[in-house]
């Protein structure tokens, strides 16, 4: 049988599911989903027309529905919640893992959240309220309280017995966290360590006391970097008194990394996402968010027109200079965008440290000189071929060298300046670098041309 990629299989399931639902062959649709993985079922339901998403979801057993619901996009979750009867909603939401439930509530209107909270069991309501009480985008907000903790005076035999009784109620059992009577985190051990130990040994004798943890107020991006750095499956979260209150698992980290990367890409493009799915956001909201940045860029770009108007007499005497303005500012913008992109990405991944700023700027400046020299030599020949005026060609070439150096230095320096000001370096995005280089590039070009041509 021919092998298929994951995307092809998902699309095939979605198409077959849609056909079966349109034919009202519900038994066939239900049978189709039996061998399909939970995550792929969620993808298939998301790809269906909105009118049939609820029908497909209702074909699942209660256990499957709860798992599939956690994988769905928040917008699809909201649509399904509106279609369900109150009892259906209560069972699904009440059985969700606490961190996924808190993430869902973050996306829902406050009125709906209040209603759903009232429907939860007392224990789940308290757990959800606890998570929602922490600041957004922190370890406390994304953690799950469904962790496994034991006391260090327990023997291996006692520990294994307790793990067997609690395993189904915990999100992960690969790490066992050890606490004292006051719930202070004192150690950690893996399930492997537990299995290999002697039955009469105590947890305190085999656990690792040097535990890596994060606090409830730690930024979620820092949590993700910590898990990535240590190759953890999960990391413990403690409060101000180092009491264990939850864990953040690697599946949550993957969601965080995707979310943060998406936000950085939007910011680099001067697009305000607002944390929403861009392609599912109302068009008027999209336009309102984008127009602000575009108006700022429009106003700043008018400075380029002002420079050209101020130097108009030079262009009137040597009209050939006008033809090369787009070439120069376009190249300068591209060089600046390249430099800013690599520096911003380096700062986000911590491959570049703030104290390395001067070294990085110097490196990019040298790169700008090399790029300018190579591009400038080509442009001099090309400009002379087009215009037949050697002095104009030299002015264009030397201007390109200067603009490349300016763009490289400014593109690498401004993200460090923004970081020092406590702002997101991604705000110094390609459009802003391009605008700044446009204005200064035209100014350099026209003044250099005036000096070389003796005007």
Automatic annotation (TrEMBL):
One of its GO terms (molecular function) is magnesium ion transmembrane transporter activity. It comes from the Bacteria. It is found in: Cell membrane; Membrane. SMART domains: CBS, MgtE_N. Keywords: CBS domain, Cell membrane, Magnesium, Membrane, Metal-binding, Transmembrane, Transmembrane helix, Transport. CDD domains: CBS_pair_Mg_transporter. It is a multi-pass membrane protein. The chain crosses the membrane at residues 291-309, 321-344, 365-385, 391-418, 430-453. Gene3D superfamilies: CBS-domain, MgtE N-terminal domain-like, SLC41 divalent cation transporters, integral membrane domain. GO terms for cellular component: plasma membrane. PROSITE patterns: CBS. Belongs to the SLC41A transporter family. Homodimer. This is Magnesium transporter MgtE. It comes from Umezakia ovalisporum FSS-62.
